[in-house]
Write a structure and sequence with these properties.
Elements: E1 10-11, E2 31-34, E3 40-43, E4 50-53, E5 56-58
Antiparallel strand pairs: 1-2, 2-5, 3-4
The structure holds iron/sulfur cluster.
């Protein structure tokens, strides 16, 4: 079945907004990051803070850019 968890662009459990490697912070709610495109800048509420972020998406979704992972 084609869904984000089977897509080459999906980082399972990935977390945005950190200066640490992705493996240091892991989500456990089946949400990960879509890395199909580069991160986009999200401005903070007061205008001088923000971060670059990949879209967060549940592993059971998918989009038209789905690309299957190669078998290991
Ligand atoms: S949103 Fe699309 S490109 Fe991103 S991980 Fe899901 S299926 Fe892949």
């Amino acid at each position: 079945m084609s869904r984000c968890s089977k897509c080459i662009h999906f980082l399972a459990g990935g977390v945005n907004g950190s200066d640490r490697p992705p493996s240091d912070l892991v989500r456990t709610d089946d949400v990960g990051l879509c890395r199909r495109n580069p991160p986009v800048w999200l401005p903070g509420e007061n205008g001088d803070e923000g971060m670059f972020a990949f879209p967060a998406i549940h592993q059971d979704h998918r989009c038209g850019e789905w690309e299957g992972r190669l078998p290991c």
